[in-house]
Write a structure and sequence with these properties.
Blueprint: E1 3-7, H1 14-31, E2 38-42, H2 45-52, E3 62-64, H3 69-76, E4 79-83, H4 95-109, E5 113-119, H5 128-140, E6 143-146, H6 151-158, E7 166-168, H7 185-192, E8 195-199, H8 202-207, H9 211-226, E9 229-232, H10 243-252, E10 260-261, H11 270-278, E11 282-285, H12 288-296, E12 301-304, H13 308-320, E13 327-328, H14 335-340, H15 353-357, H16 361-371
Parallel strand pairs: 1-2, 1-4, 2-3, 4-5, 5-6, 6-7, 8-9, 8-11, 9-10, 11-12, 12-13
């Protein structure tokens, strides 16, 4: 069985690449398909190899998305997996949605069946062109799995797409295991002294007026009130979404730089990223996968939304573990609202069972899809 994998990765976003890592790991080690039967279409070959190298992935496994080899890969393969983030989002008008639609229609021309995994879909229902694109590609896919439990399915129904082949699961990277160790001495030292993570990014910076002022006050209060170090968590590692650029603005204006760490995460893989988050005393984050890694590790968190799409992602899994009150909508982002939701002693571990039972469910469905 020859498989082509396509999706939202190759952009040095540790979260989307973690989804790809978990899916490839499952395909190799549970389904038992060898790397010689897999081709990964990516926007950055070196970046994809970097995150998957401990699975044995090399440049020979990868195909650059813009190359003509895509057509050869679709001729070569038996079935298609699309994974790696909210590929049917409408945040950028048609940027992501249009890209996935074009690829699915290419698969249709090649008469290849498609499995669409781990999606957050929407918002839809306003722009008819977006509705049509989403409906056509969803209806063509053999199976679609969504990771937010409610809202994606509601949007699919709203635009009149077929829901019989849509399944509610959890994020593909929910079950990612930590690395068991952290290479950075500075990060280890900060964690050993007790630390709260703070993830800032350009989405949040653009969405909220005075975001840096708010973040400085929040971080300084956490250091003073809870006597915790602050580690800036960098999930997005490429321009224009380089998280560290926003973190540096916050760091430079803090009164407590000696209690903060703003370190480049460029050499950190997705499993080590998960390991760092799992050892935090708490996390405040705008990026979805940083929150997923905190939640799946039982680490108390506060989600700071940058737009409605990020709220769909964050609220979906949080409702299932009783943490929906820890998500701050973009219109409510201010110092008092964020700090009121910080509870470093909050224990929700007894509610993780439901989501844990869905771990790898999307890939189990994918295995059935391969056997059809």
């Amino acid at each position: 069985m020859k498989i082509v994998i396509f999706g939202s990765y190759g952009m040095l976003d540790i979260g989307d690449d973690a989804m790809l890592y978990c899916d490839v790991n499952y395909i190799l080690n549970t389904i038992g398909i060898p790397l010689t039967e897999i081709r990964i279409i990516t926007r950055n070959v070196k970046a994809t190899v970097k995150y998957l190298q401990d699975l044995g992935v090399t440049e020979s496994t990868c195909i650059l998305e813009s190359s003509e080899m895509m057509e050869d890969a679709l001729d070569w393969c038996d079935k298609i997996l699309i994974t790696g983030g909210g590929t049917i989002n409408t945040r950028g008008v048609v940027a992501s949605l249009g890209r996935i639609y074009d690829f699915v229609m290419r698969c249709k021309r090649h008469n290849k069946k498609v499995f669409l995994s781990g999606q957050t879909i929407g918002p839809l229902g306003i722009n008819e062109d977006q509705n049509n694109l989403a409906r056509d590609l969803i209806d063509y896919c053999s199976i679609v799995t969504v990771r937010d439990f409610k809202r994606s399915l509601e949007y699919i129904k709203l635009i009149g797409a077929d829901t019989k082949h849509v399944y509610q699961t959890v994020d593909d990277a929910w079950g990612l295991e930590g690395s068991g160790g952290i290479t950075s001495y500075k990060i280890n030292s900060m964690l050993d002294g007790g630390a709260v993570g703070f993830n800032a990014n350009n989405y949040a910076l653009t969405a909220t007026k005075a975001y840096v002022d708010i973040a400085v006050q929040v971080c300084d209060t956490i250091i003073k009130k809870y006597d915790k170090n602050v580690i800036f968590i960098h999930q997005g590692l490429s321009l224009p979404y380089l998280d560290i650029n926003v973190s540096k603005q916050i760091y430079e204006r803090s009164k407590y730089k000696d209690r903060m760490l703003c370190e480049d995460f460029g050499s950190i893989g997705c499993r080590e990223f998960k390991e760092i988050i799992s050892r935090l005393d708490g996390l405040l984050a705008s990026r979805y996968h940083s929150l997923i890694f905190a939640a799946s590790s039982g680490v108390p968190y506060v989600g700071i939304c940058a737009d409605f799409y990020s709220w769909i992602k964050q609220i979906g899994f949080s409702e299932e573990i009783g943490m929906e009150d820890c998500i701050v909508k973009v219109e409510d982002v201010n110092v008092d609202n964020i700090l009121s939701k910080v509870d470093l002693n909050r224990d929700f571990s007894n509610k993780l069972g439901l989501l844990d039972t869905h771990k790898n469910e999307s890939m189990r469905l994918f295995a059935e899809f391969l056997n059809e």
